[in-house]
Specification:
By secondary structure, the protein is of the alpha/beta class. Strands 3-2-1-4-5-6-7-8 form an 8-stranded mixed beta sheet, sandwiched between helices. Helix 6 links the parallel strand 7 and strand 8. Helix 4 runs parallel beside helix 5, helix 7 crosses helix 8 and helix 7 crosses helix 10. The relative contact order is 0.10.
């Protein structure tokens, strides 16, 4: 039985780990310092708790990091400090350059590093995200096999470490920035009382994020995680000489929603948070 360690069982991490468990792997999670909500998810999905990261590093054949992108390098440092020598999969939304730094962090411990990216919603009875993997040819198939027959579609990419990260940010730089731009456009229309007309225009199109106003609160609640991802996307664009300003601007907009982390805000509150605070108070 392959032993997989998951860092950490958030909504995506727990869902992905559960699919590996259903495919026959034992899945470990590190309970130290985690929230009651995380503990509940881990218990719900049948994950096995270990007392500390050192124990996970001793027991796990594969460690999968699924965390906010801003924490990805620190998580890698923590694993490397445990002299982990198994297969380390960074599945976070980070730029290829960040992925290279993570590989360098893991090098002294002699871990095998695989670049991963998850595209889609957490796996469920109706949702089947893709897990793209790139890196050493002998390691990628072993990681992909953890998800055989599960709701996670593991797909291999040629070209080594950095390819999976590049694909993720190529997609999310459009998908997430488009959602943010739609929310800002709707907020402007709302300020002038023409939001109904804007929706009528958008709904006349075949597809338009502008018509999906019910999604704006979801964006706001996730922006604490999406914002850093957009900063990584901006870095990836700049690395190859492409303009990073749109991705950076999307991140800047998301920072206005930081106070709505993991809440269920009303649309009116989401729109209000987009307005800059004038001197002496908030609008």
């Amino acid at each position: 039985m392959t032993v997989l360690g998951i860092l950490h069982p958030g909504s995506m991490g727990a869902g992905v780990a559960a699919q590996a468990r259903r495919s026959g792997a034992e899945v470990l999670w590190c309970s130290a310092g985690r929230s009651p909500e995380t503990a509940h998810r881990a218990e719900q999905y049948g994950l096995s708790a270990v007392g500390g990261l050192s124990e996970m590093a001793d027991r796990a054949d594969v460690i999968l990091s699924l965390c906010p992108p801003a924490a990805a390098e620190d998580v890698a440092r923590s694993v490397a400090a445990c002299s982990y020598s198994g297969t380390y999969v960074d599945g976070n939304a980070v730029s290829p350059a960040t992925m290279t730094r993570i590989s360098n962090i893991m090098r002294p411990s002699r871990a095998t590093v695989v670049d991963g990216s998850v595209i889609g919603s957490p796996p469920s009875a109706s949702k089947s995200p893709r897990l793209y993997l790139s890196g050493p040819s002998e390691a990628v198939p072993r990681v992909a096999k953890l998800f055989d027959g599960s709701a996670v579609q593991a797909r291999s990419l040629d070209g080594g470490v950095g390819q999976a990260s590049a694909l993720k940010l190529s997609y999310s730089s459009y998908q997430k920035a488009s959602r943010v731009l739609a929310a800002v456009a709707y907020a402007l229309a709302s300020d002038y009382g023409v939001e109904a007309e804007l929706l009528d225009i958008a709904q006349g199109r075949t597809t338009s994020y502008l018509a999906e106003t019910g999604y704006f609160p979801k964006i706001a609640a996730r922006s604490w995680r999406w914002g850093p991802e957009m900063r990584e996307a901006a870095q990836a664009l700049a690395e190859v000489g492409l303009p990073p300003e749109l991705a950076d601007a999307a991140a800047t907009v998301m920072e206005r929603w930081e106070g709505l982390k993991d809440t269920s805000p009303a649309l009116a509150q989401v729109l209000a948070e987009l307005h800059a605070a004038p001197p002496g108070g908030r609008v």
